[in-house]
From TrEMBL:
<feature type="transmembrane region" description="Helical">
    <location>
        <begin position="101"/>
        <end position="123"/>
    </location>
</feature>
<protein>
    <recommendedName>
        <fullName>Probable membrane transporter protein</fullName>
    </recommendedName>
</protein>
<keyword id="KW-1003">Cell membrane</keyword>
<dbReference type="InterPro" id="IPR002781">
    <property type="entry name" value="TM_pro_TauE-like"/>
</dbReference>
<feature type="transmembrane region" description="Helical">
    <location>
        <begin position="174"/>
        <end position="196"/>
    </location>
</feature>
<feature type="transmembrane region" description="Helical">
    <location>
        <begin position="203"/>
        <end position="223"/>
    </location>
</feature>
<keyword id="KW-0472">Membrane</keyword>
<feature type="transmembrane region" description="Helical">
    <location>
        <begin position="6"/>
        <end position="24"/>
    </location>
</feature>
<keyword id="KW-0812">Transmembrane</keyword>
<feature type="transmembrane region" description="Helical">
    <location>
        <begin position="53"/>
        <end position="70"/>
    </location>
</feature>
<comment type="similarity">
    <text>Belongs to the 4-toluene sulfonate uptake permease (TSUP) (TC 2.A.102) family.</text>
</comment>
<feature type="transmembrane region" description="Helical">
    <location>
        <begin position="77"/>
        <end position="95"/>
    </location>
</feature>
<dbReference type="InterPro" id="IPR051598">
    <property type="entry name" value="TSUP/Inactive_protease-like"/>
</dbReference>
<keyword id="KW-1133">Transmembrane helix</keyword>
<feature type="transmembrane region" description="Helical">
    <location>
        <begin position="135"/>
        <end position="168"/>
    </location>
</feature>
<dbReference type="Pfam" id="PF01925">
    <property type="entry name" value="TauE"/>
</dbReference>
<dbReference type="GO" id="GO:0005886">
    <property type="term" value="C:plasma membrane"/>
</dbReference>
Length: 248
């Protein structure tokens, strides 16, 4: 299957590297950005979900390693969310939504992702608050189910919640989110495969490109990197893709 014309390959590859770079820099796998990009380039829905999950696995793991090496990962903040999200993401991976429903739900999630990049949901750090286990489990389950169904990792939703509730600092939320995205993406992919589906060969062609951006983003993000201009541009692109999905 020919996904891109020869003249679009360079543009798509560059955009993919930028997305992986920006998301990895804040501890995310980038699925919402990849899905937005694939929407703009008119990828088939059948390829979008497995491709996003696959790229998430690589980029989120790279991001996590950089943040882990900087000692930002707090296991006690991670496990309550993962315990509930992993089985939920596995179940979500089995679920194949109608194309129209999939696009609308994904479009809504992408609006949230775009607003996040614009800084609307970038909550400031609060004084540390004790995590509430039942609440954390419920949050993990809902995000996990949504992640498996759509092909996202859920970090774009989890990290602002962690900051808003005062459960983690910015760097801690990035470290937690990156591993959260990895385990959710793995569970979602496992459910996808056990549901009788396969990963298209085209999905693997995207991996090396995303890894380049992920390595650069993880390196700079775990330090002191910040680039508001690129985030605004990326947010605008994602918002455009969300409008295209919701109002085809």
């Amino acid at each position: 299957m020919q996904l891109l014309t020869s003249e679009n390959i360079i543009l798509f590859s560059f955009a993919l590297i930028v997305i992986a770079f920006l998301y990895s820099s804040v501890g995310h796998g980038g699925a919402s950005g990849y899905l937005a990009l694939m929407t703009i380039f008119a990828f088939p829905v059948a390829i979008m979900k497995p491709s996003a999950l696959l790229l998430n696995l690589f980029v989120s793991s790279i991001s996590f390693l950089f943040y882990y090496r900087m000692n930002y990962f707090k296991p006690k903040l991670f496990y309550p969310f993962a315990i509930a999200s992993v089985p939920a993401a596995f179940i979500g991976g089995f679920i194949t939504l109608d194309n129209t429903i999939y696009k609308v739900i994904l479009g809504i999630v992408l609006v949230f992702a775009a607003l996040r990049l614009f800084g609307i949901f970038n909550f400031k750090e609060k004084e540390a608050v004790q995590i509430k286990l039942p609440f954390a489990l419920a949050i993990g389950f809902v995000i996990g189910l949504l992640s498996g169904m759509l092909g996202i990792g859920g970090g774009i939703i989890l990290s602002p919640i962690l900051l808003f509730l005062g459960w983690a600092s910015v760097k801690e939320s990035a470290a937690i989110s990156s591993l959260f995205i990895f385990v959710n993406s793995f569970a979602g992919m496992l459910g996808f495969l056990l549901g009788g589906k396969i990963i298209p060969i085209e999905s693997f062609y995207l991996v090396p490109i995303a890894v380049i951006g992920g390595m650069l983003g993880g390196f700079y993000g775990s330090g002191y990197f910040s680039n508001k201009t690129l985030k605004i541009v990326l947010g605008t692109v994602i918002l455009m893709a969300s409008i295209k999905l919701i109002f085809p």
